[in-house]
Amino acid sequence: MKFVTGASIKTITWQDLMGGGRNNRPVTVHGAVQLLRDMGGVAFLTLRMARGTIQCVCPRSMLPPGLCPESCVELSGAAREEPRAPGGLEIAVDGLTVLSRPAAPPPIPLGKKRLELNLDTELTLRPIALRHRRERAVFKIQEGLARAFRDYLTGENFTEVHTPKIVHAGAEGGSNIFKLDYFGKKAYLAQSPQFYKQTMVGAYERVFEVGPVFRAEKHATPRHLNEYTGLDLEMGYIRSFYDIMEVEAGYLRHAIDLLGRAYGPELELLGVELPAVDRIPCLRFDDAKRLAAETYGYQIRDPYDLEPEEEAHIGRYAKEKYGSDFVFITHYPSKKRPFYAMDDPDDPRYTLSFDLLFRGMEVTTGGQRIHDYGDQLAKMEARGMDPAEFESYLMIHKHGMPPHGGLGIGLERLTMKLCALENVRYASLFPRDRSRLEP
After folding, report:
1. At 16, is the pLDDT very low, low, confident or very high (cuts 50, 70, 90)?
2. pLDDT per residue as tens digits for the range 101-156
3. Are 132 and 125 contacting, i.e. CB atoms less than 8 angstroms apart?
4. Nearest-CA neighbor of 339 among 379, 377, 374, 366?
5. Tell me, what's the pLDDT at 174?
6. 240 pLDDT above the threshold of 80
7. Most CB contacts within 10 A, which of 112, 124, 149, 428?
8. In a 3-state reduction of DSSP, which class is residue 241?
9. Which tens digits make up the pLDDT trace of 188-229?
10. What is the rounded distance in angstroms from the CA atom of residue 433 to the CA atom of residue 439?
11. Nearest Cα to 215, choosing from 433, 438, 428?
């Protein structure tokens, strides 16, 4: 009889090797052959491990027949310092076992410093392209951003929740919502976890979620996806919507610190410049539009929203004026915010809401929500909405809610701007847009 006990499966990692603790000691590692160079009596093998690559030197006589790039192997030998090797370390191989061989060579040169493919080709070959070191680095950094979100909010007494993605009604309204036939009933893919995270404020006070968001927007721009990952939070008993902005600033400080401490190899490989996040300026929506237009000499075309070019100008203004890659834009016009956004009591034309721009692009939308039942009904009716369609959502207002608010961060956009990528699709593992449903 065999029993499974949950024993840890220990392996030697790339980090273990690069940390120097294994120098001049026997090691056994596994990975994929990325490059193989036959130099006569010896062969140089580049082994791709989970986090990075390492050079291995192997007697030619030890190479198994048919060994080729993308073969998966386990090898043993002595780790030793070698200044000429990438990373200053190599393994002198004394044993090699082939675990699997590919049926065909990779369609792209994974050993090159850059793939140099056009976007469409790269996305078509995404399952293989993601093995390239630069592609892997992007998503390790993205891992760090999501990890920091969870770590920071858990430390701030937030509870992680997991809300439905098949819903009865859209949270944002409008036509940008995917419709479903749900066993003969009308249903939709969730535009955001908005209703549910507000609901959970009544249960836990502070909640967050990391999950997919779906938008049926017919865009074909470098900044839009039809499915992306939202970093969402909602918190109760706030004194003002600035409390929410303080939480986001705290998260960003934590994320930048974590990336600097734990993701150095990826940052160096991609040449990422970590932004300063100690002081983030806040500008009112109307002031930001006016200041950017006056400073850079153009006419404001849309008084109720920010166009992408305006976001870029405002980001430039914040960098030049305040030395900040980030800028909060507050008090958006009510007509451009959802029905649950709380209007500014001093001027109901505007809302107690904000966006966060990072290097000239919106990466966050948030604000204070309406918590009073009568106020929420009145705003819905003023917009021609039928409250009966939102009965389960309005239940929380009817039976008491504290002042509350929250935000949603687009993980792919945040990754894109941090890594200086030219298209948000490079920051999505398998992006979904109007034309792409595979791979």
Report:
1. confident
2. 999 999 999 989 999 899 999 999 999 999 999 999 999 999 999 999 999 999 99
3. no
4. 379
5. 56
6. yes
7. 149
8. coil
9. 999 999 999 999 999 999 999 999 999 998 888 999 999 999
10. 12
11. 433
- pLDDT the model gives residue 224: 93
Assess contact for 331 and 346: CB atoms under 8 A: no
Beta strand 361-368 with 353-358 is antiparallel
Q: Is 219 helix (H, G, I), strand (E, B) or coil?
A: coil
State the DSSP code for 164.
Answer: -
Q: DSSP letter at 185?
A: E
**Which parts of 282-425 are beta strand (E)?**
282-284, 326-330, 343-344, 347-351, 353-358, 361-368, 404-410
Contacts of residue 391, defined as CB under 8 A and 6 or more positions apart, other chains included, come to none
Which tokens in the block code for residue 174?
């409008």
Q: Whole-angstrom Cα distance, residue 309 to residue 105?
A: 44
Whole-angstrom Cα distance, residue 215 to residue 171? 11
Residue where the block lists tokens 């932004």: 275
Instruction: Give the distance, in angstroms, between the CA of residue 279 and the centroid of all CA atoms in the same chain.
Output: 22
Instruction: Assign 161 a pLDDT band (cuts: 50, 70, 90).
Output: very high
Phi, psi of 4 (to 5 degrees): -100, 130
With H, G, I as helix, E, B as strand and everything else as coil, classify residue 45. Answer: strand
Question: In this prediction, what percent of the chain has a pLDDT beyond 90?
Answer: 87
- Which residues touch 372 (CB under 8 Å, ≥6 apart)? 397
Among 49, 119, 121, 120, smallest CA distance to 91 is for 49
Find the radius of gyration of the CA atoms of the chain: 26
What is the value of pTM for the model shown? Answer: 0.94
CA max distance for the chain:
83
> How far is it, in rounded angstroms, from Cα 121 to Cα 176?
28
Handedness of CA 155, 158, 164, 168 (dihedral sign): negative
Residue 288 buriedness (CB in 10 A; 0-12 / 13-18 / 19+): buried
- Cβ atoms of 367 and 405 within 8 Å: the answer is yes
Strand partners for 282 = 328
One-letter identity of residue 112: K
Three-class DSSP category at 176: coil
Amino acid (1-letter code) at residue 117: L
Q: pLDDT tens, 276-303? A: 999 999 999 999 999 999 999 999 999 9
Say how many Å lie between the first and final Cα of the chain, rounded. 42
pLDDT at 173 over 60: no
pLDDT value, residue 68: 93
